[in-house]
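Quick one from the shared queue. A colleague (R.T.) flagged META domain-containing protein as missing a structural entry in our internal table.

Convert sequence to structure tokens.
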Amino acid sequence: MPQMDFLDASSSGMWHLSELETGPYGNRYWVKANGTAKDIRIILQDGTMLTSDSLQVCCAPKAYKIGNTLKDIPEPAAKYVNPACAVVQCENCSVWEMDLKGDQLIITYCKGEKFKYVRRQ
């Protein structure tokens, strides 16, 4: 199955956190997330990821790894700058892995945490 281009119109939109991967290494499983409005992600066609308030996500990566392809993300436009990010201490995590299948998006962060999102209708 060919890898879908993440930065096309079918992948942009609003995504709601649905599940978190948990459990010890080698025995991981998904549990339902009690997501709130702060767990909603809006993804623009250029790859910019925003909060439900249409502000940039703090500690966002510089690129997404989709399959074997690295997609650079541009700096967010000034209108999306999140003032709260100035006081957030970020870990160095410049690349997030993303797996998009239909209306399901799994993001793997640098320490291996996986978050499953579903498209909001």
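The CA atoms of residues 16 and 40 lie 5 Å apart.
DSSP finds no helices and nine strands in the chain.
Added to the table.
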